[in-house]
Each structure stands twice: as C-alpha cells, then as structure tokens.
Design a protein that fits this description.
Pfam families: TetR_N
CATH topology of the largest domain: Tetracycline Repressor, domain 2
Radius of gyration: 20 Å
Protein name: Transcription regulator AmtR
Number of strands: 0
Distance between the termini: 51 Å
Helix content: 55-70%
Oligomer: single chain
Strand content: under 5%
Shape: elongated
Organism: Corynebacterium efficiens (strain DSM 44549 / YS-314 / AJ 12310 / JCM 11189 / NBRC 100395)
GO molecular function: DNA-binding transcription factor activity; transcription cis-regulatory region binding
Keywords: DNA-binding, Transcription, Transcription regulation
Structural class: mainly alpha
Length: about 220
C-alpha cells in the first residue's frame, strides 16, 4: 500500500510559529545567525523543524529564498513607517526620532538577532539585490531626515542610521525576545538610541516624542 501523501508527522517539538512557514523561518533564523549561511543546509533546517527536506521546498524554493525573506523582514516594516512619517505633520526632529525608535524596537522584538544577517559575506551576492535596494532606500530616508536638521553636506547626516544599527550589537542571540512589541511603551534601548541620534546632530529632543511615536505606530498597525 502506498504511504500517506503530505506533510509527515513531526519528529521534533514544534518550533515557534503559527504555521509551517513561520516555523521554518524561526529555525532558519537560529541556524543562520549562529553558524552562518554557507554552513547551514536545508537538511539541517528541516530537521530543526521536524519535517522532511522535501516538505521544506513546498514553502520555500531554496535556502537563498529563506535567507532573503529574513533579510527583508528587517527593513520592510520600517520602510512602511517611513512612508507614513512622510505624511505626518511633525518636525523633522520628531520624524527622525520616531524612525530610529521604531527600527530599534523592531530589531529587539525577534527571538533571534536577524539584524546580524546583513553582516554575513553572502549578503553582497547579486542574489540579494532586492534587499540591497530596500536597505539603500531606508538608509536614504534616515539621511534625508537628518539633512533637514543639519543641512546639506554635513557628514553627521550619516550617523543616525549607524546609531540605530548599533542595537544589533547590543542585543543577545539566545532565542529570547529582548523587548516584545507593546502598544503602550518603547524599549529603553530604543529611546536611548533615538535620543542619541538627535544628540549627535545637535538637535533638541521633542518633548512628547515617546507618546507621539507610539500613536503613529498604533495608526500604522491599524492599516
């Protein structure tokens, strides 16, 4: 008699995730951030999830596609927020502060330190051109907001983005979420780095920056 068709019974505990695709991303994030891209195989990923290797390809056509999906998850939400900020009646100081805080908040909201993936040599490959374009667009947004504050040709305009990315070096990669997403508060690290981003530009801090940023994030989540 032919065997049952479909996804086989698991041989390992269920990973974090609402569905098999999310479980694959969770396992891949752990493996990629801990041992790199080249030394991680699709067999290892499937084994970590508890499925057959063939079942993994039902959800992702390749290891590269899994890696690209994880990379894009670090920039796409912030690009959406940046678009919302462009239509916000607020000072450039508040818009930049909100963008820095929101990006740090995102980087601290995952089990695995996926922001670390962009540091891997494989990211320079042309296969990840879509991510390169998105990241360049996001970097330009940070720079443009900073330029509104310090003016054209001021080298300090490059610093807020790099200050934001320092959150990657400040967090652990132990499978625990440093700061779960909250509608009512921002992580202390997000506030600290957003304050630092304005300080390095010599800009004053908006007095209601936390409350207005939280309201913007609630509006964005409701869309």
């Amino acid at each position: 008699m032919a065997g049952a068709v479909g996804r086989p019974r698991r041989s390992a505990p269920r990973r974090a995730g609402k569905n098999p695709r999310e479980e694959i991303l969770d396992a891949s994030a752990e493996l990629f951030t801990r041992q790199g891209f080249a030394t991680t195989s699709t067999h290892q990923i499937a084994d970590a999830v508890g499925i057959r290797q063939a079942s993994l390809y039902y959800h992702f056509p390749s290891k590269t596609e899994i890696f690209l999906t994880l990379l894009k998850s670090t920039v796409e939400p912030s690009m959406v927020l940046a678009g919302d900020l462009a239509n916000l009646e607020a000072s450039p100081e508040l818009r930049l502060w909100a963008l820095v805080a929101a990006e740090v908040r995102l980087l601290l909201s995952t089990k695995w330190n996926v922001g670390r993936l962009y540091q891997l040599p494989i990211v320079a490959s042309e296969e990840f051109e879509e991510y390169h374009t998105q990241r360049a667009t996001l970097t330009d947004t940070f720079r443009s907001l900073a330029t509104e504050i310090v003016g054209e040709d001021d080298p300090r305009a490059e610093l807020p983005f790099h200050i934001t990315m320092s959150a990657i070096e400040m967090r652990r990669n132990d499978g625990k979420v440093p700061s779960p997403l909250s509608e009512d508060s921002l992580p202390d690290t997000a506030v600290m780095l957003a304050d630092a981003a304005l300080a390095v530009l010599g800009a004053d801090l908006p007095g209601d920056r936390v409350e207005r940023t939280l309201e913007l994030l609630r509006q964005a989540d409701a869309k």
